[in-house]
Amino acid sequence: MNFLSIIIVLFLTILLSGASSAISLEETCPGTLITNMHQKNCTDKATSEIAYYLDRKTCIPKCSIYSTDVQDDIECSDSSDECIAGYSCEQRCGPSSTLREYKCESDEDCMEYNKRSKCLKYCVVPDTENEDEVNCMAYHSNIPSYVDKWWTAKKFKPVCDDHGQWVPKQCKGGLHGRCLCYSSTGVRLFGEALYTEAENMTCACSRRKSELESAGRTYVSFHCDSVGNYEKLQCDIQKGLCWCVEPQTGDLTAPFVSVAAMKKLPCYAEGTIGAQYLRQCESKKFATVMITEKLKTHGVVTVESDTLQCDADGSYGAFSISSGIARCTWRDNSQIENWQTNVAAVLDTLTCNCARDFKVYAHSLACEGNGNYVLLQQVINDKGKKQYYCVDDKGFAKTDLLDDANIDCTQIY
Fold first, then answer.
1. Cα distance between residue 387 and residue 106, in whole Å
2. Residue-by-residue DSSP string for 160-219
3. What 3-state DSSP class applies to 77?
4. Residues in contact with 170: Cβ distance below 8 Å, sequence separation at least 6, in sequence order
5. Residue 130 backbone phi and psi in degrees, to 5
6. Are 328 and 321 in contact, with CB atoms under 8 Å apart?
7. 3-state secondary structure at position 79
8. Could you tell me which of 294, 375, 297, 369 has the C-alpha nearest to residue 339?
9. Share of the chain above pLDDT 90, in %
10. 195-198 — which CB contacts under 8 Å span 24+ positions?
């Protein structure tokens, strides 16, 4: 073999090894690749006609355009990351004409729909019957199931994380608005602040407390402050432990001690905490939970439901129930004005948001008799003409000013 042949062989060897390395890199690309590309970068690119999502299926994340075609025929495994943002991996079945419409657990569940149908996992648009649990990316996408419905969110588009879930802190109303705490599925949690005062607001405590309760904890005794951050002193009463944390993150700043040694912790302040950790409302709530658990261990099947509402900081909740009447209440359990309602009528939708906001901000918006916001608000313009606009259950505008008083605000977001 002459010198030129040797050079050619060496060149080809290097070239092939380089190609092999490239393929290997593509196949073994780590899922923890550091990048400045996030979901918000993609949603911020959106126009009135084109929507983007963070595409994480390649080594380097990129913004991809939502297709207007239905994606329900894409199969997936246990990982929802295989589905584009706005879709989830669920077990479904049914003939192709139904676009995997039916939920299932086994092939037997599918027999009534189509004898040949199999129960398989597909990327599907999640059910959106519950307004409080709408997929975060639904507000940004042009997925067919969301287009021209209230999910188009002309007034408010939530910030989504890189997995398409709601980030804990969401702000509405611009510079003169407020920031609120939310769960990963879009459920409003305890904690809020004016936009101009929300720089250090993380909602970390409210989010963690909600996650533990959703996971089945019967009682979570964490204390969150008014903006949803952690208070410096935390105790788990059921486990008998107390510790100190960093308010914005919840990171441990002092070792765990028994509840009896709570006063030894550097974050304990007698003037603000007092002799015991639990506050008045949550003391009653905790006692009720313990009694209920003991009754169940003794074989009691039916226990009268507990109606006491407590907020995440241990204060009294938005309403109290007595003699079949729900009354909007403040943090000290005092009734707010005369806002009240029959429990059987609207308990599932009762928020008292309007009543509580009136207590704090003395706003001029109209409230229902039960303390909720009137969804269709009325104003008089500078020409003396009546105009209308829709608000959500937190009082934030969902539409511009309208001349039509017959609009159904429940169909708009």
1. 53
2. B-TTSPBPSEEEESGGGSEEEEE-TTS-EEEEEEEGGG-TT---HHHHHHHHHHHTT-S-
3. coil
4. 158, 159, 179, 180, 181, 182
5. -95, 110
6. no
7. coil
8. 369
9. 33
10. 195/171, 198/169, 198/171, 198/227
Mean pLDDT computed over 395-400: 84
* Residue 373, pLDDT above cutoff 90: yes
Residue 408 tokens read as 């159904």
Structure-token match 């007595």, residue found: 322
- The total number of residues written for the chain in this structure: 413
Q: Which amino acid is at 121?
A: K
DSSP output for 247-288: TTT--EEEEEEEGGGGGGSTT--HHHH-S-SS-HHHHHHHHH
> Which residue type, as a one-letter code, is found at position 378?
Q
DSSP class of residue 126 equals: P
- Residue 47, pLDDT > 60, answer yes
The pLDDT of residue 186 is 87
- 72 close to 83: Cβ distance less than 8 angstroms: no
What pTM was estimated for this model as a whole? 0.76
d(CA 183, CA 166): 7
Q: Which two tokens stand for residue 155?
A: 């007034």
187-237 tens-digit pLDDT: 889 999 999 999 999 999 999 999 999 888 888 999 999 999 999 999 999
| Phi, psi (degrees; rounded to nearest 5) at 181 | -95, 140
Q: Tokens 């089945």 identify what position?
A: 216
Contact 157, 110 (CB under 8 A): no
Long-range contacts at 90-98 (CB < 8 A, ≥ 24 apart): 90/121, 90/122, 90/124, 90/126, 91/119, 91/120, 91/121, 92/119, 92/120, 92/121, 92/122, 92/124, 93/117, 93/118, 93/119, 93/120
Nearest Cα neighbor of 156 from 393, 372, 404, 380 is 393
Selection from 126-130, 160-164, 376-380 with the highest mean pLDDT: 376-380
